[in-house]
Amino acid sequence: MRLSLIAIAALALLASCGQPAANPYPESARARFEVSCPSDSPVCTCTWDRLTRTLTYEEYEAALERFRETGLMEPKVTRARTQCIERHRE
Questions:
Q1: Residue 42 falls within a domain, yes or no?
Q2: How far apart are CA 85 and CA 46, in angstroms?
Q3: What is the residue range of 42's domain?
Q4: Is the pLDDT of residue 23 over 70?
Q5: Residue 48: Cβ within 10 Å count
Q6: Structural domain count of the chain
Q7: How confident is residue 61, by pLDDT bands cut at 50, 70 and 90?
Q8: Cα torsion angle, 90, 17, 63, 71, sign
Q9: Alpha carbon 13 to chain centroid distance?
Q10: What is the maximal distance between C-alpha atoms in the chain?
Q11: pLDDT tens digits along 36-48
């Protein structure tokens, strides 16, 4: 019985280690993103994927607005882009 509980707990822990599902974004948001970061670029594709898994659409829009107003980039956006650049070095 104890071994079964340990096995179930281990499976639950492993299941939680995967990437989170992408948050829903309107297609217009992706189209705006692709104006400055084309979808044929592996870095851009990776960045979009990480952004949608890290930020909700509302958080993403707030980050864009903050950047327009203050020039300061949201750390989660910077982290996503940096990780993708590192992963897809040419």
A1: yes
A2: 9
A3: 22-87
A4: yes
A5: 21
A6: 1
A7: very high
A8: negative
A9: 21
A10: 59
A11: 999 999 999 999 9
Q: Produce one character per residue of 53-70: b if its CB has 16 or more CB atoms within 10 Å, e if not.
A: ebbeeeebeebbeeeeee
Q: Which residue has the tokens 């949201």?
A: 74
Q: Give Cα 9 to chain centroid, integer Å.
A: 27
Summary count for the chain: helices (H), strands (E)? 5, 0
Distance CA 67, CA 73 (A): 5
On whether the CB atoms of residues 58 and 12 are closer than 8 A, the answer is no
The residue length of the chain stands at: 90
Q: Which long-range contacts (C-beta less than 8 Å, at least 24 apart) are formed by 18-23?
A: 19/53, 20/53, 21/53, 22/49, 22/52, 22/53, 23/52, 23/53, 23/55, 23/56, 23/57
